Structure formats: structure tokens, C-alpha cells
Amino acid sequence: MIIRQAIFLIASAFVACSWRQMTNMLPDSLKGFAPVVRGIAKSNAQVTIKQNGYTIYQTYVSPGAFEISDLYSTSSSGDLLVEIKEADGSVNSYSVPFSSVPLLQRQGRIKYAVTLAKYRTNSNDQQESKFAQATLQWGGPWGTTWYGGGQYAEYYRAAMFGLGFNLGDFGAISFDATQAKSTLADQSEHKGQSYRFLYAKTLNQLGTNFQLMGYRYSTSGFYTLSDTMYKHMDGYEFNDGDDEDTPMWSRYYNLFYTKRGKLQVNISQQLGEYGSFYLSGSQQTYWHTDQQDRLLQFGYNTQIKDLSLGGSWNYSKSRGQPDADQVFALNFSLPLNLLLPKSNDSYTRKKNYAWMTSNTSIDNEGHTTQNLGLTETLLDDGNLSYSVQQGYNSEGENG
Q1: Which residue did the predictor score with more confidence, 100 or 15?
Q2: Rounded distance, CA 180 to CA 31, Å?
Q3: Phi/psi at 346 (nearest 5 deg)?
Q4: What is the H or E stretch that residue 226 is in?
């Protein structure tokens, strides 16, 4: 079975048996924060979210901006790989950071877990290996939570220690440090440290939601357990069942260039009658190279009477990728009864409710996609509906 583990140490995928203390269900305010995955689809697309090589979420979305916010069942912390497969078979992918403030404990409460496991991912580029892991949390005075843990494997040793603060109305923060010793595929040995800061808070009075702000700094000799499982020092990850002939930049790895600094932020703001906007981004730097991984997303949505308007921008660039992927999208939704003569027959207005939707997107290569849709609900209770869509792109293809 796959266990929701590695709350403190950097994520691993594994099959395991575990001994742990049972605790009561914590309120939402004391739980970790799941990421909101956003993106832009140019057509009716399939969105797949993977973690450690495994598909953890898959859905189909309509053209335009989309948002996925129900990922609370993800197995552990660690980056998510988002793949958007368009109707023409093209795939756009990018990485979304996933970290959470450790679960805070009430004063005097102790929570522990001991795990014996076999590391296993869905990647053909990594080997399987047995390892052991232990974690411990203790609820201290003044809203503090002290936590630590360790991992032990044939080619990896790691220990970490951290401190979390429940700041009440000001949110929650945590600080931790990890010391690791690793042996890589070329049999070279390395020692290094990693330091992390995380903050989460919702400012209800201002309508601002800092879902997560964080920064991690690692020395040049720091590697994770996952890094030591690679069979080669560099390459592209391919999973079992993949039918892709062209490798994607987001799946490229190179153990000679270790991770250095990582900044991530996710902010949304309600503007009252003026709508709302969100801003999320991340930047990963590496040792021994100037190349970086970057992700930046911005969106604004508002409503003018019955007219809904929205715009979004998505920018992603992986290390080694020649050019960034950028997509800008505009969308609106308009009830068609606003264009019809007013009727005093409320039954007729309720029975025939229809609206028109339009989504337009353009990428950095100048490719434009337009989609126009019509949706209508029928019957008194609206239980019957139908939808018609027509799409067009700048290459002359209709959908």
C-alpha cells in the first residue's frame, strides 16, 4: 500500500509497513495545505497530474483557464508534474511545487511514525531499494511544535530537525534543516544540508489568501533519497506505459547540477465588486549552472451584472529548455436571455435558460485558438441540458 508519509523529509514514493500513534482528526486550520493547480487549455484537453511518476489526478477540461483545487489526497510533499494533452495530441507540461506547513500539535501531544519500506516509483530510470524512516512531533508550549526525523538506506542517510509555530490570527510558519549523506550512480559520495521556511495564512478581513509562501536553500552536496535511486547521472524520465517518442523538458534530470534555492508563492485576493485575482509562481536555481526552472501564473476574474469576464497568463520554462512556454487566455460568459425581449412569464424564463461562452488563447509562437459554445438547460428543474461547441485555430483546423 502507498502510505501518506514523509511529512517532514523530502518526498518519497514507497510500499511499506508502518507503526504509528493514532491521533484524532485535526481541524482544517491545523492541516497541511494542498496546492491549487492552474493552467490554460487551448482545446478540450486531458489534464494529468503526476507525483513520483504516479498519476494521482486526471480530468478533462474545456478550452480556456482551469483550476483544480481538490488535491488533498496527494500522498506526500513533493513537486507535481502537470501535463495538458490537447485535442491534437500535443502535450504541454510544467512542474508545480507542493509543500505544506507541518501538522501542528496541541501542547503535550506526541505523534510518531516508524516505517520500513521499499522505494518504488513508476519511472524506468530509478531502481528499487529498501529503506527505513522515522518521524516524531511534539506539541510544545506557546503554540510551538517540535519535529524531526530520519531516513536510512543503502546509499543514503538523512536526519532533519524543525520547529513550527501556530501564530493564531497571523497564520502558521515552520523552519527546518536537513543533513544528508548520499552515494550516487557513479559511486561518488556527497554530504550537504538543506534549510526550509514555510508560511501559510488567510487574511479574511482583507480577502487575501497566502495559501503558501516558502523558500528552500540547499548546499551543493545535498541530495534526496530519490536522487540516489537514479541508475544514471542524467537523462529523461520515462514511465511504464508511456507512448511518447519526444522527451519533455520537465522530465529531464541531471545529478551534476544539484538544486540550490527554491522560492514559491501562491496568493489570491478578493476585490469585492471588482472581482478577484490570483498570482502564483516558483523559481528553482541550481548549482554549477545559470539555468533555472520557472513557473508564473496570473489571472483576473470579474462579473459585470450577468456578464462574466476573465483573463489568465501562464509562463513556464524548465532547465535546458530553449524557449519558455507562454499562453494568454480571455474568456467570457453571457446569458442569452439578456439579448431577448423581456417577458413577464417567469416560467418561460426559467424553462429556457441559455448562455454563450467564448474562450480565446494565444501562445508565444503566435498560435491562436478560439472556441465558442452554447449551453441551454431545459425542463422546470433544469435537469436536462445540452451544449454545442465550435473551435478554430490559426492553422485552419476546426473542432
Answers
A1: 100
A2: 27
A3: -65, -30
A4: helix 225-228
Per residue in 202-261, pLDDT (tens digit) is 665 566 666 667 889 999 999 999 899 999 888 877 655 555 555 666 677 889 999 999
Q: What DSSP designation does 24 have?
A: P
Three-class SS state of 222: coil
Q: How many CB atoms lie within 10 A of CB 234?
A: 13
291 phi and psi angles, rounded to 5 deg: -70, 150
What is the reported pTM? 0.77
Name which residue leads in pLDDT, 116 or 348. 116
Q: Which residue carries 512531533 as its cell?
A: 137
Cα 121 to Cα 253: distance, rounded to the nearest angstrom: 15
pLDDT exceeds cutoff 60 at 122: yes
Which of these, 201, 203, 158, 200, lies nearest to 179 by C-alpha position? 158
pLDDT at 306: 80
Cell 503526476, located at residue: 50
Is the separation of the CB atoms in 354 and 338 below 8 Å?
A: no
Domain boundaries, the chain: 14-24+101-322, 328-393
Query: Which are the contacts of 304, defined by CB distance < 8 A and separation ≥ 6?
Result: none
**pLDDT at residue 88, as a whole number:** 83
> Helix or strand or coil: residue 65?
strand
CA dist 269 → 189, 201, 204, 272 (Å): 46, 12, 10, 9
Is residue 198 scored above 60 in pLDDT?
A: yes
Distance CA 81, CA 48 (A): 8
Helices (H) and strands (E) in the chain, counts: 2, 24
DSSP sequence for 193-254: EEEEEEEEEEETTTTEEEEEEEEEEE-TT---HHHHTBSSSEEE--BTT---SSPPGGGEEE
